[in-house]
Write a structure and sequence with these properties.
Length: 462
């Protein structure tokens, strides 16, 4: 990491170039513009410990640089150690899209990622916090060598003390106790097959699957052909044929409309007619052979299937018990739920006590030995002890606590010093509201024969 002044002679605040690079696996070229040129670029419904959650940190830094200096971010990435992709880009705030100004490649010999931002800053005021952040980051990542070149030409280097990385976390499904209504809504859109767009490409696929080639057939001839080949048709084609059965349109007419809504509750199909420039609704016959195909597509999974497939540690027996507890029918289709029912479902998921405890495999704690070695290197104390507690859960989210305490030796501070970390990120602010500090301050240390301002360090990592 380095920070360099654009014009060293100018007084603060002034423009600086902040650069961060690593020798990690890099980011694939196709993901770089989205990862650094959009807000909230991330994964869907999985839980996995990470240093961040939504991709906001880097994007906000890039945005701040763009707002204060109007200069693009520079991103360089290599995933194979042979070719490096280099991007210069801005972020279109209104459209939440990257604006790529320049993209080129060059040959390299190492993998890794590099990001450079030009921004307004005041290092004379912020420098101490930045140095603290780098120092504390090296404490909680003893497997990494970290260097920092500051604007004054001073080089800080923290060499790794272990050569093994902690095991990587795994992605797991969410726990029912950690779900809210909005998350349920987003999950629902993923539980049922989406109605395909009936455009020229889809119509060509339907023709191909039916073996029609260039033949021009009437609506009746098309439906007869579909019934004969029904078992061999792909699901998207089946859905299109089901829609056609209610619209009673051939391919030419079908290409001039777009489906707006399929309302199973009221047995209505609504489409927009481009020729008439209006929405048209038609009734669907629930006794039709094709009605079930559309109903299952729109309504999604049953409640019990939704619970067992979309959440962790929920089996069929538990799903049935929950349905009885929440007063839902097990076969109730998720896609048919009203807003009130979704709220009722969410409340039930959060209050049902028979769900198993959350799976902690999505976590990647540092480990007792690495934390101990990191503290030994930094503090060289007379006494040192580290403990890692077993996994616990809060509101459906698993967590692991690691604590270290060091006393005496070369600890320079006089008085207790607490270092706080979350997911291996130093927590430099809001110290007064942290429960860890409150516990430390409320502890009667005289019972441990510690009085006055002792050379004592406590490390907390969640």
């Amino acid at each position: 990491m380095s920070i360099k002044a654009v014009d060293p002679e100018k007084p603060d605040p002034k423009q600086y170039i902040l650069s961060v690079k690593d020798n990690g696996p890099g980011i694939e070229s196709k993901h770089v513009p989205l990862a650094f040129g959009t807000v909230l670029y991330g994964s869907k419904f999985g839980l996995k410990q990470a240093r961040g959650m939504f991709g906001l940190g880097a994007t906000m830094a890039i945005l701040y640089g763009q707002i204060t200096t109007n200069r693009p971010v520079m991103v360089k990435s290599s995933v194979d150690g042979k070719i490096q992709d280099e991007y210069e880009m801005l972020l279109d705030i209104q459209k939440n899209k990257p604006v790529i100004l320049k993209h080129q490649t060059k040959e390299v010999s190492k993998t890794g990622l590099s990001v450079s931002i030009c921004l307004d800053g005041d290092y004379s005021k912020a420098g101490s916090k930045i140095r603290d952040y780098v120092y504390q980051t090296s404490l909680i990542t003893p497997y990494a060598t970290i260097t920092f070149d500051d604007p004054k030409g001073v080089k800080y280097r923290y060499t790794k003390v272990i050569r093994t990385m902690p095991p990587a976390p795994t992605i797991i499904r969410p726990h029912p106790h950690g779900i809210d209504v909005e998350t349920i809504r987003r999950m629902l859109s993923d539980t049922h097959y989406q109605i395909p767009t009936v455009d020229d490409k889809m119509i060509s696929k339907v023709r191909s699957d039916l073996g029609l080639s260039k033949k021009v057939l009437t609506y009746s001839e098309i439906m007869n052909k579909a019934q004969k080949k029904w078992k061999t048709l792909s699901r998207p084609v089946r859905i299109v044929m089901a829609i056609m059965s209610f619209l009673k349109m051939d391919f030419e007419k079908l290409s001039k409309i777009t489906i707006e809504e399929i309302d199973i509750a009221n047995k209505k199909l609504t489409y927009w007619d481009f020729g008439e420039s209006q929405s048209i609704s038609i009734d669907m016959d629930p006794e039709s052979f094709y009605y079930k195909q559309l109903a299952n597509t729109v309504q999604g999974e049953t409640l019990t299937s939704f619970l067992t497939k979309r959440f962790q540690r929920v089996g069929p027996t538990t799903a049935l018990k929950f349905a009885e507890f929440a007063k839902f029918k097990p076969e109730h289709r998720i896609g048919n739920m009203t807003n009130q029912e979704l709220v009722k479902l969410t409340d039930g998921l959060q209050s049902f006590d028979d769900f198993m405890a959350p799976d902690p495999s999505c976590l990647a704690p540092l480990g007792e030995s690495p934390l101990k070695k990191g503290m030994e290197r930094f503090f060289e104390p007379d006494f040192l002890e580290v403990v890692q507690r077993g996994a616990s859960a809060y509101s459906g989210f698993p967590f692991v606590i690691e604590m270290g305490i060091a006393y005496g030796g070369k600890i320079s501070s006089r008085g207790m010093k607490v270092y706080r970390f979350a997911n291996r990120i130093p927590l430099l602010y809001d110290e007064g509201s942290d429960v860890v500090l409150k516990v430390v301050n409320d502890t009667d240390w005289s019972r441990y024969k510690i009085k006055g301002d002792p050379p004592l360090v406590i490390v907390s990592h969640i």
